[in-house]
Amino acid sequence: MICTSIQHKTLDEILELLQSGRIEMAEIRLDLCPLDLDEIETLFSISDVPLIATCRLADQDAEQKLLKAVEVGAKYLDLEVEAPSWLGRNLRQACQKYGTVLIRSFHDFKGTPSRAILLSMLERCRNYGGEVAKIVTTAQSEADVERIMELYEDALPGTLVAFCMGEEGRESRLEALAKGAPFSYASLGEDDATAPGQWTTSKMMEAVYGERKMIAPPAPVRMPASKSFAQRAIIFAALAEGTSTLSGYSPCGDSISAIEVARSLGASVEEKGDELIIKGIGALPGKLSLKEVHTGESGLLTRLMIPLLSVLNSGPVRVTGEKTLLKRPLSGAHDIMASFGVRLYPEGAQAGRDADCCLPLSVGCPLIPGRAELSGKGGSQLLSGLLAALPLCDDRSMLYVTEPRSIPYLFITMDVLRKFGIQIGSEMEGDEDFLENNDWSRCTGMSFKIRGGQRYYPADFAIEGDWSGAAPFLAAAAIFGEVEVEGLDTESLQADISIMDILMDAGASMSQLDGKTPTTGALHIRRAPLNAFDTDLNNCPDLFPIVAVLAAFCPGESHILGVERLRHKETDRAAAIAEMLENMGVPVDIVEDEMTVAGMSLTQRLLCGKLLKGGRFTSHGDHRMVMALKLAELGAESPVEIDDTACVAKSFPGFLELFSSLSAR
Predict the structure, then answer these.
(1) Which residue in 89, 48, 187, 76 sits closest to 134, CA to CA?
(2) Contact 314, 287 (CB under 8 A)
(3) Burial 578-604 (b: 16+ CB within 10 A, else e)
(4) Which is it for strands 275-279 and 243-247: parallel, antiparallel or unpaired?
């Protein structure tokens, strides 16, 4: 990225510059800008533009100014490596506390020392706490520039900013970005240069981006309803005795399938704008006489209904589906349902087999309450179905789940059940790290206490916006510009809210705009220097395609756990992601449950001619792959043609039109 050095400007002048859209990142010279502590607090607390706070040590108030900037939100702090050890220690501790990236910098305004001295300075910057080392010297010759550029061979991607001052070093400021520097410095204008040989921001922008524009939609983009919440709410409302009103609804393939299932149970469903008015059946065990239920292409709906039908129906009922669902095995379904006395009867070539089966199949009955220990490795959806069905039985039940996966989705199920009057007690087990940090990936077991004889009651509430659908928009902003997204609950139980943490770990700039409630505000994501990251997506596998594309634009190697959870989605999603990235020229490796993606920044890709490769790609009929391919296209050298985009309607019918509004080629 291009960092504009700002000096000799008042607070109002700086804010006007940051809001002008001309600057993507800025260095604030606190020793040269006439800002008091209150003005520093205002500047660094309200700006979404990534800011570097720096102040030469000759300023007697340097420590106060820098500490204030860190405390209120500076993205970076630049501290000279010559700073006294006590000052370095204090500022380093502040950076660690407030999440500011510490830059330790070395400047030589007279010349460029030997390679040995440069390497020792680089090591010194690292030893003094620099997450980014900044080595800037004065070039007297081409050989000086070459010595500086060689430093990139000894640095991890994104951890070094090294270039030369002076006219001899002018091109090194641009070459630094091509070598992998997270940013390089430019000036507002010819008369504002902070050192000889500095480019102006406008000229460097032209050299890096040419005619490419960063995305910046004129209006906020609003997310559709979460199908995870909507499907659960529709089915549970159908089971209630009375009328429920669900607001904030927006249709998608899976939610429409849930409405059709609700109607097949005997519920009345009326759509009025963004409201669903559902008159339920007052569900009781064994009172239905259904012959067949069709669950569309929804894996969640299928797994919710298998346990529910086994308790609601008076006899075996056939469950059918369509498209990719017919090829997706119901992992562990036989064993899980058998634990409560229910037999599944697969059809056709599957008949008589007890291994993982696919639709169509028949579900036996009745569901017998009791105690069971079940494996959660196959996911949470069938367990959610049991949590919805067992409270209707006459007696209590106890579930103990080992190796639970997709834990947030179980919390969503219990949260929506609670709205309809169903109470379930739960406890989680884990090691010390889990207990201290609530790290769901370290959870080793979950137990559920379920009282029998409960009934569903009607409820009125708003369906949350969809974090899964928001992920490609948020990632697009982090890589290619900025986006304001509305309709998301930042206190949501949805697993895919993890995209916020992932983007923050990757270095994106993020802020929440005020609203009366968590869902009435907006989330603003802005491009910033990105870095490689490690994440575990076992609890949120739907994020994997988007996160993998994000990793392709993060310098270095990113490591993503959760590959095994992808094998039986709409396609073998792990293989599909690897195929997509490899065909686009991105190195990717899969070892057991981990995918490693080798990334480069957008700036480096542009300067090195290494944008992603376009061409013809297959979505494998997977809506998440369509979203990932459209995200990747924003950073491709030519258009990406997708064989099947209609499948995106499964979760987000308006995605293609809304996402195309971001494109600014």
Answers:
(1) 76
(2) yes
(3) bbbbeebebebeeeeeebbbbbbbbbb
(4) antiparallel
For residue 433, give both structure tokens: 């790290």
Q: Which of 131, 203, 143 is nearest to 173 (CA)?
A: 203
What domains, with CATH codes, occur in the chain? 2-209 (3.20.20.70), 227-462 (3.65.10.10), 466-660 (3.65.10.10)
Q: Report d(CA 389, CA 399) in Å as an integer.
A: 13
Residues 380, 353 contacting (CB under 8 angstroms): no
Beta bridge partners of 568: none
Q: What is the pLDDT of residues 338-395, one digit of tens each?
A: 999 999 999 875 655 555 688 999 999 999 999 999 988 888 999 999 999 999 999 9
Which tokens is 583 given?
């065909």
Token pair, residue 379, equals 């996911």
CA atoms 484, 485, 491, 497: torsion sign: negative
pTM: 0.90
**Sheet strand arrangement including 344-346:** 292-294, 317-320, 361-363, 344-346
Decide the pairing of beta strands 275-279 and 268-272: antiparallel
Q: Is 273 left (phi over 0), alpha (psi -120 to 50) or beta?
A: left
